[in-house]
Amino acid sequence: MKRRSALAVFGAGLALTLAACGGGGAGTGTDGGDGGSADASDITVGVAMPTQTSERWIADGNNVKAGLEKAGYKVDLQYANDDIPTQSQQIDQMITKGDKVLIVAAIDGTALSSQLANAASSGVKIISYDRLIRGSGDVDFYVSFDNYNVGVQQGTSLLTGLGLKNADGSEGTAPGPFNVELFAGSLDDNNAQFFWDGAFDTLKPYIDSGKLVVKSGQTKIDQAAILRWQQETAQKRMEDLLTSAYNDGSTVDGVLSPYDGISRGIITALQNAGYGGSGKPMPVITGQDAEIASVKLINDGVQYSTIFKDTRKLADEAVKVASALVEGDEPEANDTETYNNGVKVVPSYLLESQIVTKENVTSALVDTGYYTQAQVDAGK
Ligand code: GAL
Fold this sequence. Notes:
Helices cover 41% and strands 13% of the residues. The protein is an alpha/beta fold.
């Protein structure tokens, strides 16, 4: 897929001046090989990632850094321990140091407006990485996945796991009703609402028909949300749900979880309450990110599904966009409608995600080289 738009032609003069590139492909991405022009090596790209407690963000950071270096850029990669002031400070420093483009996966999507205003006034370009930065007109581009569809996939896999739907999309034969509980992500992360909406829209007809029963009655996103996507917080909420809604001998049949770390917290709470033992099967539990520990849990029949988002492709996309912005080109978007950040609709490039269950762990994750078989077997 060629990302160059017609605007590249329009901007060619500018691009030549800025990048002084010898060939048409210089600096256009991770696969050019000729991206290491003299100018690229003078340019530092700042990469601000939220946390190292989740392996996905470590992989994202490493992949983005490797891609940028391959394209010839210097890279300033920082992690912020899920602490908002730390991330704001890191971004301020990147601007002060003269980084030309920032790739930012925000902790709190609404907390960076003043940093971005500074960046914009210094001519620094901003790429919002996976999580949309809200409330700022200074976000130049957004790279992510189709986040509403991720939620649809989570809801769908809960339904197939329970037998209410078949893998081919047809209605399943399980009669229900099934007791389910719903979890959402961190409300300061724009993605959380998208995942929730996609999943809820998918589950709602079954809730309305009575085939799914949210026994706790907690069907609002703010009741279901888990601040900072924390495993321990999810474990605590699941424990509370079990105590308050399932102390009458009833059992949980399914749990909608938006992220593998949250799923692991839910699983711990359920195991402590005797689920997964004799007579009390583990509920159908969803997830996201295909984190290696959770892939093992899926293979072991403990977690039902995850959503695989190939972060290598996301990193490639971020590198392409960074290169285009450096060259004064307009990066190619495939969505210019969905992601309104409250100030503007941010042009976006959205990738597709995939449901993974025990049936396709190998084809989705091993055959594609995302993990080795040994990693999958070991769960690390
Ligand atoms: C979201 C991201 C998910 C998951 C979650 C927790 O923003 O889209 O894939 O990683 O954060 O880290």
